[in-house]
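Justification of computing resources. Each target in the renewal requires a structure prediction run like the one illustrated here; the chain below, 202 residues long, is used simply to show the kind of job we budget for.
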Amino acid sequence: MREEILKLLSEKEMTVTDLAKALNVSKATISHHLERLKAEGLVRVAREERVKNFVRRYYTLSVPQIDLIIKLVKSLNDRNEFLRNYVRILGLSLLKVSPYLFKKAGFELGYALSFKNAELEDLAEIWSKLKLGETSCSRDSLTVEDCYFCSGLPKVGRPYCRFDEGVIAGFLKRAKGENYKVEEVKCWGLGDEICEFKIKRI
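Resulting structure tokens:
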């Protein structure tokens, strides 16, 4: 039901009544699903119209951090900058929709990059070679300066680099055959100018 609602709202703004008619369900059912979608940040009220004593609300999809995305698009100067901001926009959108899916995608990439008996230093070297940031590591942490994804992004009170958490966890899983919990404790999103990931074997 929610996927159908999102599909319809991707095409145009609609009211609860419009959605109920289109999907042939009750308005109460639509209202319930809209509340859940609003709580998840996927849907918002686009505008309101007052009809006599009644307020008609039109819903639309919620574009993640639209002000930030506009700023990123306006900053494009060359192909490399375009690719970087393209990755950022995709990442910010997925981070808004499902940070856990974003992290899982990173896990799959990290697992593919790894090899048996690899060490964290090997991942740090790969990171630097791909120009994703300058890295340093210890036994239980990885630090990235000039992070490709988040450096320069505004403080939002939460970390941006869920994908990177997944990359590290996936890399170590294949290398060591064990599970690891990876948590970003410093990030531009938290007001820091570096990214630091704490790593703990589960």
